[in-house]
């Protein structure tokens, strides 16, 4: 039986380097060697080895030329250090998905893997993850800002409805006063069977007065409903803006750490190349220092990426929670307006004897109000992006 056919020692696995060379890794200690381990568990055939404290990247633990027992010790040391240097460069390959305005999105290959959070609804939490240019300027606005603008427009519409009703009240009151004055003209009172007979005059005046009262009952709820709505929306805006600023800061820190790591790896590579040319104890010491700095830079990068992912996760959670809350508030506001207008039209049918035909179209429109359908139409037209962010990976 050839040595390659013998079973490996316990906890050891065989891998193939990019150059087609076999090498062996201890799955417990992450120890790596070019020599096949002996039958004694946990020990390779030769002491020539190097340690690797980071798991595999892209299926490989390192690369380089194999180590041979017959080579001189200084050549062996050189090649070992070179192998470690190359391994370090391989291990810190960073996988950055698509990043737009500090938000990390999946690459096109993985986009189809995402499912909507609420697939049976046109929910705000699914369609406003991306940013877009402000149509009224050159600035960039977030998807959440688009939702906030819609809510503020809804609040403005509610205010305008209240102002319209108030103006109608003023007109109706003026009309009632004029009717009252006109009915007191002596000639009008004396005219038999005319427009201003007492019974008819009283009915008209009472009808107008009732309409004024009804309109007052509609105007007041429209005015007082969520008086602090604008302030509440500002709180939403400031909170989400702060989270995005923190995310941008963490993204910049990752980029800075990535560049620092690249510099450390380049420095380590240069020192290793010098060692290949001339063996020198000072160069060996410099390589050890450079390797420590490279490892530290790698740890810093991992820490920055972890902090970035924490910030993005927090922003993601707040985006979902806040957009669903805006959705709920919108449905509540629409339902409040619909109920008050339905109450108004019902009582108007009972009190206004002269304008029944003008109320019927309003009744029909109110019966067809559907917040979910309105939201679907609006989302189809204004959505910014349904692709959700993902973690940044190393």
From TrEMBL:
Residues 120-374 form the F-BAR domain. Pfam families: FCH, WW, WW_FCH_linker. Residues 32-43 have a biased composition (Polar residues). The keyword Coiled coil applies. Residues 6-39 form the WW domain. SUPFAM superfamilies: BAR/IMD domain-like, WW domain. It comes from the Eukaryota. One of its GO terms (biological process) is neuron projection morphogenesis. Residues 32-71 are annotated as: Disordered. GO terms for cellular component: clathrin-coated pit; clathrin-coated vesicle; plasma membrane. Keywords: Coiled coil. This is Growth arrest-specific protein 7-like. It comes from Sinocyclocheilus anshuiensis. The lineage of its organism: Eukaryota, Metazoa, Chordata, Craniata, Vertebrata. The gene is LOC107670554.
